[in-house]
Specification:
504 residues, alpha/beta, Rossmann fold, 3 domains, 6 strands, 6% strand, binds flavin-adenine dinucleotide
Length: 504
């Protein structure tokens, strides 16, 4: 896979992979427009893929457009995830068209068809895409490469990671420890300020259909109603920046100090940044979060004397950069990133050795989904995910490990945990989710521990351990309240919809 020469773009060439070289236009032909197929990085600000697309368009004096494809089905997304995503995109369309006059096209169906069709229709010479390590999109890109004409070039830009995944490491990393040093060495080169996004020199002349957002959104909400939207987290780039550093309850401005002490306390969910929904949908750039975290340290010299704040910034950067990018490394280099086959040899062996250990309790997928286990703490975590849409980070580990304990084997445990995580978490269907489940159930990126039944040498967690760490009953009550409020809201919405139907 080639990369670009440093002169050809204002984006670090290491961030760009040439998935397909385009043949130069014939002498009597001009270069066509640039299309950015936006998938993972759904934002206008701080988006290296968009910067590259505009850059290339201006260099060749051609117009540029953004295209987004709404898949008919993508990893089981429901109203919760799709509503959040589309509402964010609706904001994006307004700002990108009003501020930069870059047109935004929304397609529905399979991207391997809609994107090459659009490229052909508008005569584009360059297709830019952002990067995700997930296999569905990698396959889709392979197909697109085969479907566009020879003259079209395709560039993939890692706009999601601070250090592009293929630059951070050329191989599957064993643990955070083996990746950390590599990433840290490259931060000076990659953790830099973003250039100002240029306006395109040439405007898009072709006509385009307006997007009926209300109807597209109503459609996904109806089809995915089984997992309704959440209302505590507003979609869009502005909302994301507010959560990061807003004056009201911003993480860096108001909540940072509690991070080291309280981030493992499920009773204090706001001690965490709560940025994962925005990071997942690319409504905020991790690089922006990291730059602002570093700035927070520099802007307030007195903070230097507050070890808790310093500790908080370092702990946050560790999760945001090292742990998150370790997950991308795993999914990029391990084709079996969501199966037992992807576990390290020691873990596969130990889990196999204990596969026939007697299980005291075994639950079905349905029982898990309905939170019908005998453990009120586990049930609470499941309900937190179902009703709130974001299970606390500490509980996610306990939750997945117990699924291993209460199923027939690790493959089944992994399949159930991924199914539930992807279905209910607002930040699900993410490399972090696959790696989180693999870490909990298959010991990925972890070390071997004292051998015990079922788990073998995979790290174990239990109720008593949780009880020592936090107020378990308090957490159960908190989730009960959240679930109660959510059910009440759902009932009120149903009532008002019925009333509307009656009066229409
Ligand atoms: C079983 C299991 C499932 C998980 N599923 C998901 C998922 O679907 N989506 C998801 O984004 N995260 C997942 N995680 C990782 C982690 O729990 C969440 O990222 C975190 O709870 C999100 O909340 P926050 O943004 O407030 O966290 P913060 O602590 O404020 O972290 C800031 C950011 O750092 C990154 N981060 C934090 N912890 C981790 C981690 N352990 N691994 C990788 N990156 C991390 C995330 O991008 C997060 O948004 C999972 C973990 C486990 C054990």
């Amino acid at each position: 896979m080639a990369s670009l020469s440093p002169q050809s773009t204002s984006v670090h060439p290491g961030r760009i992979r040439v998935l397909k070289q385009g043949s130069p236009p014939a002498l009597d032909q001009h270069a066509g427009p640039v299309v950015y197929w936006m998938f993972r990085d759904q934002r206008l600000r701080d988006n290296w893929a968009l910067i590259h697309a505009v850059d290339q368009a201006n260099k060749n004096n051609v117009p540029v457009a953004v295209a987004f494809n709404l898949f008919d089905q993508f990893l089981g997304a429901k109203a919760r995830q799709l509503g959040f995503m589309l509402k964010g995109l609706r904001h994006l369309q307004t700002s990108i068209e009003e501020t930069f006059q870059i047109p935004f096209f929304l397609f529905q169906g399979e991207a391997e068809e809609t994107i090459p069709n659009f490229v052909k229709e508008c005569g584009a010479s360059l297709l830019v895409t952002d990067f995700t390590p997930l296999r569905e999109i990698r396959r889709c890109k392979d197909k697109i490469c085969g479907r566009v004409s020879d003259s079209v070039a395709i560039h993939e830009v890692d706009a999601h990671n601070v250090v592009p995944v293929w630059v951070a490491s050329e191989k599957l990393e064993y643990s955070a420890k083996t990746l950390r040093g590599k990433i840290n060495k490259l931060l000076q080169e990659y953790l830099i300020d973003f250039p100002v996004l240029q306006s395109p020199h040439r405007k898009w002349a072709a006509t385009r259909l307006s997007i009926d957002w209300d109807s597209v959104i109503a459609d996904v909400l109806r089809k995915g109603a089984e997992v309704p939207e959440i209302d505590w987290c507003q979609p869009g780039e502005d909302a994301a920046m507010e959560v990061l550093k807003g004056s009201n309850d911003g993480f860096l401005t108001k909540r940072l100090k509690g991070y080291p002490k309280d981030r493992n306390n499920p009773l204090k969910p706001r001690a965490l940044s709560c940025l994962s929904p925005y990071l997942h949908f690319g409504q905020i750039s991790a690089q922006r979060c990291a730059l602002e975290a570093r700035r927070a340290r520099k802007l307030c010299p007195e903070l230097l004397y507050l070890p808790a704040t310093l500790k908080a910034i370092d702990a946050f950067l560790e999760e945001l950069i090292v742990r998150r990018e370790l997950a991308d490394n795993f999914c990029f280099y391990q084709p079996h990133y969501d199966s037992l086959k992807g576990a390290w040899e020691w873990a596969r062996k130990t889990l196999k050795d204990h596969a026939s250990d007697k299980r005291e309790l075994i639950y079905t997928k349905e029982q898990f989904e309905k939170a019908q286990t005998a453990d009120p703490l586990w049930n609470a975590s499941q309900l937190e995910m179902v009703y709130h849409g974001k299970m606390h980070g500490f509980m996610r580990m306990y939750w997945a490990k117990k699924i291993l304990e209460w199923t027939r084997g690790p493959e089944e445990a992994l399949a159930i945990s991924i199914y539930l995580n992807d279905k209910y978490e607002i930040d699900g269907r993410d490399p972090n989710g696959y790696v989180g489940c693999m870490w909990s159930i298959c010991g990925v990126h972890d070390q071997g521990w004292k051998e015990r039944p079922i788990f073998g040498k995979v790290r174990y967690m239990n109720y008593a351990g949780c009880k020592r760490k936090f107020d378990v009953d308090g957490y159960i009550s908190l989730v009960k309240r959240i679930a109660g409020q959510s059910k009440k809201r759902k009932a009120e919405t149903l009532l008002s919809e019925k009333a509307k139907e009656l009066h229409s």
